[in-house]
Write a structure and sequence with these properties.
InterPro entries: CopC/D (IPR032694), CopC_dom (IPR007348), Cu-R_CopD_dom (IPR008457), Cu-Rt/internalin_Ig-like (IPR014755), Ig_E-set (IPR014756). It is found in: Cell membrane. GO terms for molecular function: copper ion binding. Keywords: Cell membrane, Copper, Membrane, Metal-binding, Signal, Transmembrane, Transmembrane helix. It is a multi-pass membrane protein. By secondary structure, this protein is α+β, with helices and mostly antiparallel strands. The protein has three domains: about 120 residues, Immunoglobulin-like, CATH 2.60.40.1220; about 290 residues; about 100 residues, Immunoglobulin-like (Sandwich). It is about 50% helix and about 20% strand. It contains 17 helices and 18 strands. The strands form three sheets. It has an eight-stranded antiparallel beta sheet, with no helix packed on it. Strands 2, 4, 5, 6, 9 and 10 form a six-stranded mixed beta sheet that branches. Strands 1-3-8-7 form a four-stranded antiparallel beta sheet, with no helix packed on it. A hairpin with a 2-residue loop joins β11 and β12. The radius of gyration is 30 Å and the shape is elongated. The relative contact order is 0.11.
Length: about 575
């Protein structure tokens, strides 16, 4: 329930997601061509996966043009190419849908015309109808997020439980409930990954929930990066089967444990291979940090769950005997989770303003807050361990005897004062420092139960977080907008909207939807926050009502002000302004 609550809370804050950004098209948006183009190229900001249904060409009449499947371009993983048959005169809509490198679907549409523009803005109406629907079915979004959260939970229990059984509670595998827990997590991870493979097909294609059983969508998923990663995870989990069959024979752990550890590390690498860490700069470092993050989080949470199982199945003493070792393992895990989490957040966020100014930043802040609560609970558990099970046996026995003597005499033992963590020479006696065994056990288990509950909620939020565009990627694509310039509509695209060389594309449309005939256009950019005066951008005609820039090179990042001026006739000039973020 906590996992589902975490997913629901995150999903309620998450809008439609966009990851790979369309940087340019050939022909460009709104182009009026003299003859039918032989090819259509779409260039994206990152590598993409292409399927047979990635591109559709629709005539103004609403009929779909028959084409061969689109392909990638060798050596250019961010370009999709569609061969085009000879087209009749008129306006056409190109709708596209691809899967970005981090496994998320992105779609869009643009128009161009051959010979003449169809009347009534038919092309724009078709494009708007296509874009007005959701990127994916809501039921698929929710189901995929829940399955992803359950996958992470099963992964944490399996990895953390096996690690803890090998290195901390070395006799834990002798107990039936522990083995059942590990078998349940192994079975869940395998079956849920298979379900995720099917859901990815529906998710990427925009199909409904039953689409997960469509073999044609399975083949589409198989050809994508995320399909490969999910297949690798299935193989790694299956490769664990011999180890799972031998866990009831701990005496033979010496030879199967090393192979098990290698396979668990491989499983921990799969979320990064198919997620945000796999794209962008220094992706290999990011994927390594992601794997460390998953391993550390699994060791922390899986170990806690194993502790709960031991403590609630009549093996409390055995669980408590290894608490000093577990306490050190948990401390190291928390440190690694914190360091790698900070590194990942720094990489994905565009700046401090994005912490609360973007959906990704808000979800990340929620996750950090929950982890801090878990750390506070871990501190309470650590205090109980230090005040009971990490003490010298002689000192512990002396304190217990003194306490029993006071209780036998009808006196109450003194309560602990101050905040010292160890007995010292300032008046904090061993009696006030050492916790009675029953009290220490109660505090420890209460803290551990609460800690596990919070971490389950963290996993639910994480399941939504990985499906949300990072602020860095959300801001790194080209900028596009439609501006009202008097009675005209201006489609403006600035690509790639980063410092350095940029292209500005401008298409002017008349109120009826056709190209607008004007005398001249002028574009200028300014950055008042940096005291940069307006920079005139030379615009050249690239066809009827279509203009492109010459040499626009913003020197610094910031929210630039673009001013568009259109000379409609010798005495009428219309203008419009917009804020263009340059990163």
């Amino acid at each position: 329930m906590l996992l589902v609550a975490g997913v629901a809370l995150g999903a309620s804050a998450a809008p439609a997601f966009a990851h790979a950004a369309l940087e340019s098209t050939v022909p460009v948006q709104g182009a009026l061509l003299e003859e039918s183009p032989p090819l259509i190229d779409l260039r994206f900001s990152e590598p993409i996966s292409v399927s047979a249904e990635s591109v559709r060409i629709i005539a103004a009449s609403g009929e779909t043009v028959k084409t061969v499947p689109p392909t990638g371009v060798p050596g250019s993983p961010g370009i999709m190419r569609q061969r085009v048959p000879v087209l009749d005169n008129g306006t056409y809509v190109v709708t596209w849908r691809i899967v970005s490198a981090d496994a998320h679907p992105v779609r869009g549409a643009f128009t161009f015309s051959v010979g003449e523009v169809s009347s009534g803005g038919a092309g724009k109406n078709i494009a708007n109808d296509f874009l007005s629907g959701g990127t994916t079915h809501r039921s698929v979004d929710i189901a995929y997020a829940v399955v992803r959260g359950l996958v992470y939970l099963a992964m944490a229990i399996l990895i953390g439980g096996l690690f803890a059984s090998i290195f901390v509670w070395r006799q834990a595998l002798e107990h039936k409930r522990v083995r059942r827990l590990l078998w349940a997590s192994w079975s869940a991870l395998l079956s849920l990954t298979v379900v995720a493979f099917g859901l990815q097909g529906s998710y990427a294609a925009g199909a409904n929930l039953p689409g997960m059983f469509d073999p044609s969508l399975w083949s589409n998923t198989w050809s994508t990066r995320i399909g490969t990663v999910l297949s690798i995870r299935i193989l790694l989990v299956l490769a664990l089967l011999p180890s799972m069959l031998l866990i009831k024979k701990p005496e033979r752990k010496g030879w199967w444990a090393p192979l098990t550890v290698v396979l668990l590390i491989g499983i921990a690498m799969t979320p990064g291979l198919g997620g945000h860490a796999s794209v962008g700069s220094q992706s290999w470092i990011a994927m390594f940090a992601d794997a460390i993050h998953v391993l550390a989080m699994s060791a922390w949470m899986g170990g806690l769950i194993l502790l709960v199982v031991l403590a609630t199945s009549g093996h409390t003493e055995e669980a408590l005997e290894s608490m000093p070792i577990w306490s050190r393992v948990a401390t190291l895990s928390v440190l690694l989770v914190t360091l790698t989490g900070v590194a990942r957040g720094y990489r994905e966020l565009g700046g401090l303003s994005d912490i609360l100014g973007s959906t990704y930043g808000r979800l990340l802040s929620l996750k950090v807050g929950l982890v801090l609560v878990a750390l506070l609970l871990a501190t309470l558990a650590r205090d109980a361990v230090q005040r009971r099970w990490e003490l010298d046996p002689e000192e512990l026995a002396a304190a217990d005897e003194e306490r029993e003597a006071l209780l036998s005499a009808g006196e109450k033992p003194p309560k602990r004062r101050g905040h010292s963590l160890v007995p010292d020479e300032t008046g904090v006696s061993a009696l006030t420092y050492v916790l009675p065994e029953a009290t220490a056990r109660r505090r420890l288990l209460r803290s551990v139960f609460a800690e596990v509950s919070i971490l389950v909620f963290v996993i639910g939020v994480t399941a939504v977080l990985v499906n949300t565009a990072p602020a860095q990627s959300a801001q790194s694509g080209p900028w596009a907008a439609t501006l009202e310039v008097g009675k005209l509509l201006a489609d403006v695209n600035v690509s790639p909207a980063r410092t350095g060389a940029n292209e500005v594309h401008l298409t002017l449309n008349a109120p009826g939807g056709g190209p607008a005939q004007v005398l001249d256009v002028a574009v200028e950019f300014s950055l008042p926050s940096a005291d940069i005066a307006p920079i005139d951008v030379e615009m050249r005609s690239a066809g009827i009502a279509h203009y492109t820039s010459v040499g626009f090179t913003p020197p610094v990042a910031g929210d630039w002000t673009m001013t568009l001026k259109v000379l409609v006739d010798p005495i009428t000039e219309e203008s419009a302004t917009a804020t263009v973020p340059i990163r």
